[in-house]
Amino acid sequence: MPKQIKPVPAEHQPAQSDWPLIRKFRYVQRLENQEIDALVQLHQQTKTIPKRKVILNQGDANKQCLIITDGWAYRFSKLRNGNRQVINYYVPGDIISPFALFMPKANYSVASITDLQVAVFKPDHLIQLFATHPRLGLLYGWMLGRNDALVAEQVIRIGRRSAYKRTAHLLLELYYRLKIVGLYNDTSFSTPLTQDLLADTLGLSIVHMNRTLRKLQADGMISGRLNEITLLDIDELMRITESQPRYLEQTQQISPVVSQQK
Amino acid sequence: MPKQIKPVPAEHQPAQSDWPLIRKFRYVQRLENQEIDALVQLHQQTKTIPKRKVILNQGDANKQCLIITDGWAYRFSKLRNGNRQVINYYVPGDIISPFALFMPKANYSVASITDLQVAVFKPDHLIQLFATHPRLGLLYGWMLGRNDALVAEQVIRIGRRSAYKRTAHLLLELYYRLKIVGLYNDTSFSTPLTQDLLADTLGLSIVHMNRTLRKLQADGMISGRLNEITLLDIDELMRITESQPRYLEQTQQISPVVSQQK
DNA sequence: CGCTAGGTTGAATACGCTCAAAGATCGTGG
DNA sequence: CCACGATCTTTGAGCGTATTCAACCTAGCG
């Protein structure tokens, strides 16, 4: 039973179309009803995946795309010595295997953290989706670009930031991502993360991860546990981490009018 | 005057179509002549960019795509304290701003290392390119997926690998990437990298970068300077870094036959 | 031939790691 | 409803990898 905060309704859209992915798209782009319908189609087939399960192994065939509608997952690589590195998280509205249409095999493993509610679609489905709704193709591309920025940000975090700033920066990022799909509560949000997983995300040891979180707490930056964390001083967090959620938002209309594609 | 090793000719293709980007695509996919022609079109307008110049600033409008045909560049972010983190390199055959069609603004800065020879095209050009040649759309998607793997690999490198392994791993990656576009010589390749730039790529200090390179040399793993480096024991390098150039290659035919898209 | 960017080396320091052990918390079954 | 096990969190102590500071060396270029 996922303990997400109840989503706040977006604008005024029929309940059926209130999937997190659609919410994410509508956050950056006005959608026609037709387009919304087509995206709802993508959510036709749903499936549940138990928590703590490896969904995809490095090298597996990329047979399907999964849209997360509830729960969290992560993409990772495991080294021989047992070290694990988390590349990115998937939260509601994110697609697992977004490149399935283009790449025959998965380059990295993916595992669920919580029980997962997903919509399954065949990669091929995208071909006709984009042919029928070119703007959705552009939105899909936007999503890929956003994912790219997310991973680039992860590089910067672990490459040139101290443990303290890494942690603060990631927490901010998660806050903003969840906010976009409505999974927040003022300056609090809930996560299924453990310190262990966070450590493997930020390239730190568990011990140091713990000490860093304690320090953020002692400094009055955060409060609560990971399962329900509150950012106490967002301005200061933004300042010290030099965060610019710009890479999450890009609020301009992507393509006011797309040239008629035939 | 870029001092690249002279490319070896790929298969048996007219000289005009021997652009690195096309070579990269043909490495993973058989192309029809029509498709090659269309890609050659993309290279119509060329341009030279001087070395050590910032080509794109974080936040700049993504007005054009640049295909590198000669030279190196890198994408990076600069922090307030002066720290710089390199996210990825661009070598011949790579596209700068591949998401320009989808994202209005650049999320990160890009700078040239060497003098750059580039082909310039308008992002919009891709729309009709993909409409006319759907398989090129898939190849473009493949390229984006490959870039994603490249950055993910960078995360793993700096997150959970020692300085020694990071360095070895990056050198191997560069070797394989250059090999695909023909810029290699047995187990040697030339780079315009400095230890300073490498350090900012791998999240190390210059001093430690230097010591690490010295150690790799002392261990008989590499020889020569960065401007013309030789990998002396590729098998061993692959073993200790657990490298799997799979993420660069994915040699399967991406889409034997694409369903007719109208 | 001197300047400048880049490379090299030594020494002291620090950030984060490992090892070790003890508390907390939560789910589950008796 | 309590007890137990499993997972997760916390804390202490010693160590090591990589950092910083400082200096000197080297090579290419004008």
How does this structure look, described?
The structure is a homodimer of 262-residue chains. Chain A is α+β, with helices and mostly antiparallel strands and 262 residues long. Chain A folds into two domains: 18-160, Jelly Rolls (Sandwich), CATH 2.60.120; 161-253, Arc Repressor Mutant, subunit A. Helix content of chain A is 40%, strand content 18%. Chain A has helices spanning 20-28, 33-42, 125-132, 134-160, 163-180, 195-202, 206-218, 234-241, 246-249, and strands at residues 45-49, 54-56, 65-70, 73-78, 84-90, 95-96, 109-112, 116-121, 188-189, 222-223, 229-231. In chain A, strands 1-8-3-6 form a four-stranded antiparallel beta sheet, with no helix packed on it. In chain A, strands 2-7-4-5 form a four-stranded antiparallel beta sheet. In chain A, helix 3 crosses helix 4 and helix 6 (195-202) crosses helix 7 (206-218). The longest helix of chain A is centred in the middle third of the chain and has 27 residues, at 134-160. Chain A is globular. Mean pLDDT of chain A is 87; it is low at 1-14 and 254-262. At the A-B interface, strand 5, helix 3 and helix 4 of A face strand 5, helix 3, helix 4 and helix 6 of B. The first copy, chain A, binds a DNA duplex (30 and 30 nucleotides) through residues 162-163, 194-196, 204-208, 210-214, 225.
